[in-house]
Amino acid sequence: xxxxxxxxxxxxGGLLALGVPILxxxxxxQKKKRLRFSTLxxxxxxxxQSTQKRTLRNxxxxxxxxxxxxxxxxxxxxxxxxxxxxxxxxxxxxxxxFVLDRSASMQATGVDGMRWGAAKETIRKILSxxxxxxxxxxxxxxxxxxxxxxxxxxxxxxxVLSDLQPTxxxxxxxxxxxxxxxxxxxxxxxxxxTIYVVSDLQRSSIKDLVSHPLPQEAEVKVLNVGDLFTPNxxxxxxxxxxxxxxxxxxVVANYSEEESNGLKATCLI
Length: 269
Known about the structure:
Elements: E1 5-6, H1 19-27, H2 48-77, E2 79-80, E3 93-101, E4 109-110, E5 113-114, H3 115-129, E6 135-141, E7 145-152, H4 154-162, H5 173-183, E8 191-199, E9 219-224, E10 233-239, E11 249-254
Parallel strand pairs: 3-6, 3-8, 8-9
Antiparallel strand pairs: 1-2, 4-5, 6-7, 10-11
Helix pairs in contact: 3-4
């Protein structure tokens, strides 16, 4: 087995062409013929040593041509060394934890469609790239942060994800990250820990991130499924009639990072 992999392994089939120059060499090789003569005094004695040198030179020339062609085939096949290696030489297995935002804002529809559908599709794509020895876990961030699926094969997590739905409340991504850290075994050097944060990154869900530092051993990747520079405006309270006020009143809140001064809201009843 090679200690490296090939980006275009199919091109290694070109090594079969190495047999062509060898076949030509054998076919064009001169054969000795035996002839009868009455006397040999008019023939020069053949230098056996020079013949051996010429044969060795031809074999070396053939070997150099074969080596050059083999190097060209390997170059086009693009060999590379795997990046993650264990001390024993094997490839590291991965432990992947998905911190999924299940807040109400994930039900919004953006430029690329519904955020919740985009979040699930993003997670499925990463799960499909995991190998058989890799493990995945799923944490849902809503009013309560829960470990929806502990470490399991990617197919198991994918089935759990299919039935998952967003909630009507807010989320706490920082609490989800702390739950993810508890799942990892950082003493196991044969595995690579990775955390994927899948969220639309609303201000209410990421406000406490600075106060929760993460270990350096864990790689954190943020996957934003929300639209950039799109305010998240919500109607939090509506009072139509009562003893305190004589006219309808609505409370509108902004949960995104963008300012929304001068917003015009219309309420149809």
